């Protein structure tokens, strides 16, 4: 990272950027970088305004292994496992995840959008087949992978991934 420090009454040029002289009251010590507001950028180089986000600064990487982040060995173990049947309990396309209720009972299984095969977005009541993979870091919870919709829920509208709506 490059810092530009301005002296008393002089100007400095670095990386093709120029600045106006600063007064002695805004002189900074060499140990602290200048604040962004003290840099006088040309109009075309002003930082863009960003919309306020309540989650900015609080986002942490997700521990959920999506298809792109799952290790090769975990993918092989999951694909060699048995095929289970269940019913889609819920799925939120905007959030990118949902849950499957297993046909043989037990706790609901998490499903990520990257693990759904086929052309339709699952809705509540769709019958699905899936394989299971554990979720790190403790590998105590399960995630459905290779999810395929086998029967669309009757009387519901289904959406394709491209946005077309189809009634079943």
TrEMBL record:
According to the UniProt entry, which residue ranges have a biased composition of type Basic and acidic residues?
42-51
| Family matches, as InterPro entries | Ca-reg_mRNA-binding_domain, CSD, CSD_CS, CSP_DNA-bd, NA-bd_OB-fold
Biased composition, Low complexity: where in the chain?
11-30
Which parts form a coiled-coil structure per UniProt? Answer: none
| Entry keyword Phosphoprotein | yes
An example Gene Ontology biological process: regulation of mRNA stability
- Top-rank taxon of the source lineage equals Eukaryota
List GO molecular-function terms, semicolon-separated. Answer: mRNA 3'-UTR binding
Where are the stretches annotated Disordered? 1-66
Keywords, sorted A to Z: Phosphoprotein
- List GO terms (cellular component aspect): cytoplasm
Secretion signal: which residues? none
Put simply, this protein is called Calcium regulated heat stable protein 1
Q: Which organism is it from?
A: Corvus moneduloides (New Caledonian crow)
């Amino acid at each position: 990272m490059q810092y530009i420090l301005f002296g008393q009454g002089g100007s400095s040029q670095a990386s093709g950027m120029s600045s106006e002289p600063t007064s002695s009251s805004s002189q900074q010590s060499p140990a602290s970088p200048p604040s962004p507001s003290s840099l006088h950028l040309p109009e075309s180089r002003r930082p863009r305004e960003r919309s306020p986000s309540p989650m900015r600064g609080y986002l942490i990487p997700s521990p959920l292994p999506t298809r792109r982040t799952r290790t090769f060995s975990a993918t092989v173990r999951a694909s060699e496992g048995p095929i289970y049947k269940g019913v889609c309990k819920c799925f939120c396309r905007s959030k990118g995840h949902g849950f499957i209720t297993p046909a043989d009972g037990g706790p609901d299984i998490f499903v990520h959008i990257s693990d759904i095969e086929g052309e339709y977005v699952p809705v509540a009541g769709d019958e699905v087949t899936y394989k299971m993979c554990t979720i790190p870091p403790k590998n105590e919870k399960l995630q459905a992978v290779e999810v395929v919709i086998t029967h669309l829920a009757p009387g519901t509208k289904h959406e394709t991934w491209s946005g077309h709506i189809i009634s079943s």
